[in-house]
Amino acid sequence: MSVIEAEPYDFELSPSRAAMLIIDMQRDFLEPGGFGDALGNDVTLLRKTIAPTRRLLDAARRAGLTIIHTREGHRADLADLPPAKKARGRFATGIGDAGPMGRILVRGEPGHDIIPELYPLRGEPVIDKPGKGAFHATDLDAILKNLGIAQLIVCGVTTEVCVNTSVREANDRGYDCLVVSDCVGSYFPEFQEMGLRMIKAQGGIFGWVAPSEAVIAALPST
Ligand code: TIU
To answer: How many CB atoms lie within 10 A of CB 33?
Structure first.
């Protein structure tokens, strides 16, 4: 057990029972010329998370932590795409349509895949999720239970959407979540701030928040 200096109070890390969960670091959300960019979002706000996440990922791999990646997306036949999700936003080019990096949020398309900087290693589970939360309609909970994981160190995008939804789902399932403040990103600075404040408020109502350097300092160095 080692202690991570976090808010609202110290997080007691048990490395053998902890997983690093990296949410939706996909090309379509992060790369210039992707879907997020095409919608008018400033992807540089998300790209700031890549370097610290890479440093934390390297340290977590060295420490032997379980690493799990997620991707938001749908079957090529879109049979798992709720009509309400397809219709939302009234976009001229939406989920399933041809976008700048292939069909938008469709599994197997270039834009749906994880950015090269954080690409999963063989053996690291990749969870394909149809919703915002990493638990909804996926086998994540079963995988975590089978591995004996009780703590999640959460990184990824976006802070207020898929990260917050996943942390809330995890919290209700009994996991302790620590959200890494410089390894989560939002297209909206005010949502970044509030997305983190919502997690750690009220004594850590959904979990803990700490910067990557505090997490790295607490990881065992082998
Ligand atoms: N992964 C994730 O957050 N998906 C989103 O759709 N995020 C937005 O901020 N739109």
So the answer is: 14
